[in-house]
Design brief:
Largest sheet: 10 strands, antiparallel
Structural class: alpha+beta
Order of helices and strands: HEEEEEEEEHEEH
Radius of gyration: 15 Å
Amino acid sequence: MIRPGLAVLALVALPAAAGARETLGVFDRWGAFSDPAPRRCYAIAEPVRAGSASRWRPFASIASWPTPGSGGGGVRNQLHVRLSRDRNPQARVTLSVGDRRFDLTATAADAWASDARTDAAIVSAIRSSRSMSVETLGRTGGPFADVYALKGAATAIDAAALACLAR
């Protein structure tokens, strides 16, 4: 059995595009990391239950990209989900966090919130919930869901956000 923290480290074991990826910490099933160029900091996890076998590794991440020289600007706490398989292009993608539901914008295999306000609401819901799921229909029409445990998510999100503020 793979320990949850080891699974997170394996998820981001590929080298960063330019420079060394820094591990900020592993918090139960969530890890926090930063990449130097382009500068980004993120919390990331694999699903505890994925919709099916996949050609890629599904994940959910909350990331920040500071804009150099702008006094902080940039993107803060933005959700990105890599689905466990391709979805039907006509199907909605719904993120459920506790009792909250969010419609996501999506391509074939990726999904995200439509705006910063929705990202903020999602992160707020993550902080007070135990699990989240991303649900849609697969390319052939069958439903699937990727389920994430949220223990450690708030700490990983905070570690990533602080790392990008500190530099």
